[in-house]
Amino acid sequence: MTTTAEEQTRRTVRGYHEARFRGEVSPAAAHLGEPFRFQSPFVTSDDRTGHLATLPGFVSIVTGVELISELYGEAEATLVYDVHTATPAGTQHTAEQFRLDGDKIVSIMLLFDASPPWQPMKAHIEL
Question: In whole angstroms, what separates CA 54 from the centre of its chain?
Fold first, then answer.
């Protein structure tokens, strides 16, 4: 059976997403390419090492993730999900846009409302 570009994109993005929310840095890193760029309302990183350094702090406050929607193209994907946290912020509605080069993610743009009550949590997420 031939793998389409969309199927490969799905495997790569879902592999990264699932590893990240399990807090598994090495398996998540295996899905990221070089060069790599990450942007969110709190953190911007121009390399995967810097991006993944924030993973343990972030995952420590997550109690669950509920995937709402997945959209896959040949070299891009968008996930929409709720992140449930053990913080006053509670549940965060989140969208993540991925760009790929081959079977590696080269950029991620994470979107969520960073207004209160998330501002006090910023110190807990950053290293």
Answer: 11
Question: What span, in angstroms and rounded, lies between the C-alpha atoms of 53 and 96?
Answer: 18
Both tokens of residue 113?
């409302």
Query: How much of the chain is in helix, strand and coil states, percent to nearest 5?
Result: 30, 40, 30
- What strand order describes the sheet that includes 91-101? 44-45, 32-39, 104-111, 91-101, 76-85, 62-72
**Each residue of 30-57: pLDDT tens digit?**
999 999 999 998 889 999 998 898 888 8
Reduced to 3 states (helix: H, G, I; strand: E, B; else coil), residue 36 is: strand
Site of tokens 């309302």: 41
Query: End-to-end CA distance of the chain, in Å?
Result: 44
Domain 5-125 class?
alpha beta
AA identity, residue 63: T
Unique residue bearing structure tokens 């080269």: 106
Q: Give the SS3 label for residue 21.
A: helix
Among 1-10, 11-20, 110-119, whose mean pLDDT is lowest?
A: 110-119
Residue type, 65: V
